[in-house]
Amino acid sequence: MTKFIHKIGGMMALAALGVASFTSCSEEIDDSNLYTFTGQTVIDYLRSDSTLSDIARISDIAGMSDRLSAYGTYTCFAPTNEALKVYIDSLYDDVKSKNHNGLYAGEVAADSVMNRLWKSEKCDSLCKDIIESQVTGQKKTTNDFLTGADITMMQGNTHTPKRVNGEITIDGTTHFIKTDQEVENGIVHVIDRLFYRSSNYLIDEMEAMGCYSLWVEALRKTGIEKILQESIRTQGINWFNLEPEAGTDYPTKCKVGFTIFAEPDEVLAKEGITTFEQLVERANKEYENCSTWYDYVKDAGISVSTKDDYTNQWNALNMFVRYHILHYALSTDKLVYSFNELKNIDVYEYVRTLLPGTMFKLTGIKDPGGNIGEIYINRQLTTPSLTSDPGNTSLVSAAYQAANEVKDPGILVGNSKVNSRQASNGYIHPISSMLTYKEDVPNKVLNERLRFDFMALLDESMTNRFRSYTGADLKSFFGRTDANITSVRFPEGYFENMVIYNGEASRVNYLTKDHANGYNGYDCWNDYQGDELYCKGAYDFAIKLPPVPKDGTYELRFGYVNNGKRTIVQFYLGHSSDRSTMTPCDIPLDQNVNLQSTTVGWTNANTDGDNGAAVDKAMHNRGWMRGPNYFSNKKFGEGSTARFKSDGGQHHIRRVVTKQYFKQGEENWFRCKTAMPENTEAEFQLDYIELVPVNVYNNSYLTEDVF
Hints:
six-stranded antiparallel sheet, 3 domains, FAS1 domain, single chain, eight-stranded mixed sheet, alpha+beta
């Protein structure tokens, strides 16, 4: 007979968490509250509980039981038989669902609801959908729910722990019956209803929510709803016909997704907008004269329409809607990325919208524990990226505080009455006030050093759940039962913003942040956000750069780690991916170059009497910069940051690729070609780029800071 230890308090601990928002991991639940079952696996537990017999049968039909009985780490949010009965009954009556409507062949007695599933012609596929939507390849205890971070299931649906009347729920709707049932290969939580997930496209989901009526009307009348119906891309991808290597896997599908940041009806009402006509009027007011500061429109001589030709891309309403939408899917916990940056520094992302040439800034605000709390759109600071105290690395210095004083808090992502929602092809996030592309966005909010992780430029990396995921996440995603997946190799054509010129000779790989643990014991690579894109072979490819916020002179910088495994690369820039139109940028970059040579002139800023300020200036004059004092190869930026020699003994460095005039309305493609085609094992690392306006890198009164 299975032995177990049961200590009272599992559920009481949840109720005692309080009503405050998720802010800190310092609030902990006693691990002694865990239920321990010796020898049982997840599937054993499901089969042993008569109230969970239906989810156990679903697992068997779906072919998941072998995985849930094997070595690994899983968390199963197991719905009771009664919960499953309610769910199946709701599907049977669902006349709108594209996937479930008409599932059931023949009539089944009303008192045999589950027979509708067992006798369905699509039983196998629906069972697979159900079980993969309730299981994640990560161990998630109630302690983990305290951060409020999203939980991503095997099927790809994401869910958010949320307090309701002091009780922890999932998404505010799913309640726990039993928690923390620990088994040999993971955790089981028993729940009272299945996680909500939708088979609807974004506009249908917005309509079903009932709180975005004006947005639904605007999407339909602009024709943008047709754009938002894309979900899978198959054309142009040369899929691999190879067996995955150990620790590596390859994508087999390419999802297309979107993210909408939308004002619920109640938010628009506070702006005096309760009808479609009033929304049109407001859009016309915001955009009719935008050519005075929207350089894309000015340079192209575009005339913004304020008429009723809403499907016109340059109609004011159409522009208003497009500025709210990203062409990649971001769950709540992936709006900004936090891992190896300094504990007390806010994090940010610059996201590209469907309005041509535009971006907005997402800022994640840290609590004292270093966790992300509120997230704002277009938060405006005084003089970001600049300082009156060169070389100073203190976040509490007067100079840093003055430069980063909040001038405009921005627009809060989230709403007390409306939850973020996942549709079949993306996410809908409510926002707290009116979002428009205003003059202050290019001239103030984005008038700073813009740092982009290379994976952030590849839309599919986010929609398909590769960027910033751990090896364990990817192991679950790929359905592997062996060791964690530490790298993903991408086939030619997988990324629309990346063109590979020589097929499989360019081996493009993504390294997870925790891959570093297997080599040197550190938490991550000494890279921005801890992960990296890298290439091997006789590589030759180009990546589309993000747009500049406005016309002007910018410095394009390339950040990387210097070590003996790197290669020599020639950079090119062009206004299309056509190689014949591209021009080389300076001499080839040797990623193995001795950084302490006179060519670079790197020194340890800790030993410089002026905190490295003079050497910073001299290096920059030669086209080099130390790494930022922003991240390290440990969580919370502990240890030695990229500005100094890393704890792993490697230097992080930035190379100035070019200084030139960029226009907001022009495409810019960044080509990378090996200068060592004979060395097929040399590594070329792509970590991040920076686009820095001249008023930052060559300011008349202030100096660019070290962050």
